[in-house]
Amino acid sequence: MPSEPPPPRPLPSVPTTETEEGARTALVTRIIIVVTVILGQLWALTVGLEAFLSGHTTQAWWLAVFSLVSFAVVAALVFLEPAPRSRPRSKLRR
Amino acid sequence: MSTQPPRHGGPSAEPERRPAGRPAEGGRAHPPDPDLVAERIARLTTDARVTRRGYLRILAVLSGGLALGNVAVAAGAFRRRTAGATEEVVITDDASVIPVGGAVRFTYPTERDPAVLLRLDDDLFVAYSTICTHLACEVLWRADHSDLYCPCHEGHFSPQTGAPTAGPPIRPLPEIVLEARNGAIVAVGEGRIVEEDTADAE
């Protein structure tokens, strides 16, 4: 007597959208990058002040430009938030 | 059909849940609902926290402030000795009235550039800018200690050379070139000026 085929295994419960934990990780990563950039800005401020007082005005201006670019990077990281990732259902069923 | 319970405080809130301590319709006080109290405490503590997103925005404001500060520094928010002055300014008409160890404050080359004339010996006069080369505070002459002293960060400069002798400054005070004319002391230019742009031009 032929045995019946086993019932199909249920699909694992894979979330279709980014999980809360993933979003939190992305946010913390952005915070770490921003803090690193701000440390660079602090360095630029101290070196720029020293350069200006030493008479190296050109160097002070370059450091100011560096700081402005750093701020642009920070603003992009803060305000250009990527949309949450999602996985189409069709790719989950193979 | 939705089976969600109604939110508290809304029009369809559960009638039996009343704010803590408020009497019922009959005027009789009931003990507060412990679930409601716990929920409110949890909501209050959650609202008081700074979220990660809020922290990120605070960091963005800090970053903008640093960038503006850096531009302000490069644009000349701090005082610094200007280079290339050749004006002649009479500091005193009669140098003999200045005692040995005495000092006369003046400004050179503009009214915004404080300086000091020192008489170190009978025939030895020196003059320096009194803008500290550390963070641009004004340097003071202390006759009792025979040194030029910056009170902001405890910087000390030698009166003989203007070189830093103690504290955070690393650059000497800019020297002002003097001439003696018929008993008068005249500032005629700046000597040792640290200015890259001028040095390059020369």
Straight-line distance between termini of chain A? 31 Å
Roughly how many Å apart are the termini of chain B? 86 Å
Fill in the CATH topology of the domain at 89-201 in chain B.
Rieske Iron-sulfur Protein
Please, how many helices of chain A? 3
- Residues in helix, % of chain A: 55-70%
Strand order of the largest sheet of chain B: 5-6-7-8
Give a quick account of the main beta sheet of chain B: strands, pairing sense, barrel closure: 4 strands, antiparallel
The fraction of residues assigned to DSSP E strands of chain B is 15-25%
Helix content of chain B: 10-25%
Q: What is the residue-averaged pLDDT of chain A?
A: 81
Q: What do the pLDDT scores of chain B average to?
A: 78
Instruction: Identify the CATH architecture of the domain at 89-201 in chain B.
Output: 3-layer Sandwich
User: What low-confidence regions of chain A span 5 or more consecutive residues with pLDDT below 50?
Assistant: none
What form of chain A results from the Cα inertia axes? rod-shaped
Q: Quick one: which chains have the greatest interface?
A: A-B, 37 and 32 residues
How is the main sheet of chain A built? Answer: none
Descriptive notes:
- The complex is a heterodimer of chains A (94) and B (202).
- Chain A has 94 residues and is an all-alpha fold.
- Helices cover 65% and strands 0% of the residues of chain A.
- Chain A has a domain at 37-79.
- Chain A has helices at residues 20-53, 57-79, 89-92.
- The two termini of chain A are 31 Å apart.
- Chain B is of the alpha+beta class and 202 residues long.
- Chain B has a domain at 89-201: Rieske Iron-sulfur Protein, CATH 2.102.10.10.
- In chain B, strands 5-6-7-8 form a four-stranded antiparallel sheet, with no helix packed on it. Chain B has a three-stranded antiparallel sheet with strand order 1-10-9, with no helix packed on it. In chain B, strands 2-3-4 form a three-stranded antiparallel sheet, with no helix packed on it.
- The longest helix of chain B has 24 residues, at 52-75.
- Mean pLDDT of chain B is 78; it is low at 1-18 and 193-202.
